[in-house]
Design a protein that fits this description.
alpha+beta, globular, 3-stranded antiparallel β-sheet, 11% strand
């Protein structure tokens, strides 16, 4: 078993930083948090994270993730590696397969950082339609 300490990106020594809407974020916190948002900035990685998070039992085998995409297995593995490096997921090898699970500490942290403590939760956004005649 590895003796390396898992460092979750975007967390300081106290475990959290103030929400964006209550205090300016420190430069180092912004740099670390940007890595997490960069990992989430790809549609394939967002879908992977969603598939992992929504799986009954809380984990999913890579063998169940790969067929859902028109991508090669090495490409899927690369996307999963980036999500793992960002502290969003964890993995465990069992025989020849790797199982992935969500790390709710990071999603809770992102939620806390983005929360506006002065408002009630918002309804989901509806898609904005382009004005008639607008170029797409």
């Amino acid at each position: 078993m590895s003796k390396q300490k898992l460092v979750v990106l975007g967390q300081d020594a106290e475990g959290c930083c103030p929400p964006l809407l209550t205090a300016p974020m420190a430069e180092d916190q912004a740099a670390e948090l940007a890595k997490v948002f960069k990992a989430l900035g790809d549609p394939v990685r967002l879908r992977l994270l969603s598939m992992i998070a929504s799986r009954e039992g809380g984990e999913i085998c890579v063998c169940d993730l790969t067929p859902a995409f028109d991508l090669s297995q090495p490409t899927i593995s690369h996307h999963l590696k980036l999500l793992k490096q960002a502290g969003l997921i964890a993995s465990e090898r069992r025989g020849t397969w790797v199982y992935y699970r969500l790390l709710p500490e990071m999603t809770d942290h992102l939620s806390a950082v983005l929360a506006n403590p002065q408002t009630q939760p918002l309804e989901p956004l509806e898609p904005v339609e382009a004005p008639a005649g607008a170029a797409s």
